[in-house]
Amino acid sequence: ADRHAVTLWARDDAQLAAMAGARQNERYLPSVPLPASLRLTGGPAKDAARGADLVIVATPMAALREQLGALAGVTVPVAWLCKGVETATEAGAFGLLPHEIQARSAPSLRAGVLSGPSFAQEVAHRQPTALVAASPHADVRAALVDAFHGPSLRVYANDDIVGVEVGGAVKNVLAIATGLCDGLSLGLNARAALITRGLAEMTRFGLALGARAETFMGLSGLGDLVLTATGDLSRNRKVGLLLAQGRTLAQAVESLGHVAEGVYCARSVVQRARHRGVEMPIAEGVVALLDGRVQPAEAVAALMGRDPAPEIA
Ligand SMILES: NC(=O)C1=CN([C@@H]2O[C@H](COP(=O)(O)OP(=O)(O)OC[C@H]3O[C@@H](n4cnc5c(N)ncnc54)[C@H](O)[C@@H]3O)[C@@H](O)[C@H]2O)C=CC1
Ligand SMILES: O=C(CO)COP(=O)(O)O
């Protein structure tokens, strides 16, 4: 909003009125005044997008299909911020990545994703952050870099949307695992091992879906994994910490008040990986824990009890 005329569209009229009154989003991003120039609006999303040069969908994964459907026919670039895979299944398809949902629900859109290590509070406070804009379309990547690259935000372009989206989804599942590890006081060695082996399984999964290995060494892979697995602002990490303290999943989710995408996408990630014959033991352990099939200590024992294996398969 410093450099562009920006309209924030909201689906919920009560929330819209609260934001307009307080000029703040007290429910989701407290203590951050909304820029004076930011226009707030409701009504049909497509009307709000009329006249825009770029549309950003900033909802959780669960709302992406509906929101993209509502934007069908928009001709300017559209990008989403969500990190995860779809939990609902279609005939013959499950664990769809965001761009795969777009290809099914609004195939005419020219679209992409903005991802990378970026806690919202820090971005809102203009703390230095680097992101990646991914799309198969060069003009969409350029539009995102042009709109967002600035003094406190560096935006790199990448045409590997599969790799960028796999990184964003899988790091959430792995952050639950590292939260659990830290909550159980297993130590810094264990955390480093989980992050590194987690990166290996994220990469295996991505390669099976057609991603490039180098993408996982970048901001949306290693970068976001390190941030989310170690940063206490992470909601996914918090879920792991709370489970380690003996809270139930329902209690952990309830206490967050925000979405923790790993809770919703872990099963679908594992289901899709199994279908592709990709081993993801850490993600499997997280799913067993979330399903209540194992206790935290049993999940750790199962991982440590695996047979020896070469580091690079
Ligand atoms: N918060 C963060 O630091 C970051 C979040 N993300 C990703 O962005 C996505 C959204 O996360 P947050 O905003 O943090 O979640 P949040 O739980 O804090 O807020 C969710 C927002 O989406 C809205 N919403 C929910 N369902 C909707 C629907 N059907 N239609 C329209 N709006 C709807 C809610 O009203 C709320 O404003 C997630 O996929 C997350 O992984 C990505 C980067 C950083
Ligand atoms: O994606 C994020 C930071 O890049 C936010 O992570 P959480 O959803 O775990 O808070």
Automatic annotation (TrEMBL):
Residue numbers binding substrate: K83, R235, N236
Domain named Glycerol-3-phosphate dehydrogenase NAD-dependent C-terminal: residues: 160-300
InterPro entries: 6-PGluconate_DH-like_C_sf, 6PGD_dom2, G3P_DH_NAD-dep, G3P_DH_NAD-dep_C, G3P_DH_NAD-dep_N, NAD(P)-bd_dom_sf
Domain Glycerol-3-phosphate dehydrogenase NAD-dependent N-terminal: 1-138
Listed pathway(s): Membrane lipid metabolism; glycerophospholipid metabolism
Binding site for NAD(+): A120, R235
EC number from the UniProt entry: 1.1.1.94
Domain of life: Bacteria
Pfam families linked to this entry: NAD_Gly3P_dh_C (PF07479), NAD_Gly3P_dh_N (PF01210)
Coiled-coil intervals, chain numbering: none
Major location category of this protein: cytoplasm
Active site per UniProt: K171 (proton acceptor)
MF annotations from Gene Ontology: glycerol-3-phosphate dehydrogenase (NAD+) activity; glycerol-3-phosphate dehydrogenase (NADP+) activity; NAD binding
Compartments reported by the entry: Cytoplasm
Residues that hold sn-glycerol 3-phosphate according to the record: K83, G116, S118, K171, D224, S234, R235, N236
Assigned keywords, A-Z: Cytoplasm, Lipid biosynthesis, Lipid metabolism, NAD, NADP, Nucleotide-binding, Oxidoreductase, Phospholipid biosynthesis, Phospholipid metabolism, Signal
Family: Belongs to the NAD-dependent glycerol-3-phosphate dehydrogenase family.
Name under which the protein is recorded: Glycerol-3-phosphate dehydrogenase [NAD(P)+]
Organism: Variovorax guangxiensis
Organism placement in taxonomy: Bacteria, Pseudomonadati, Pseudomonadota, Betaproteobacteria, Burkholderiales
Originating gene: gpsA
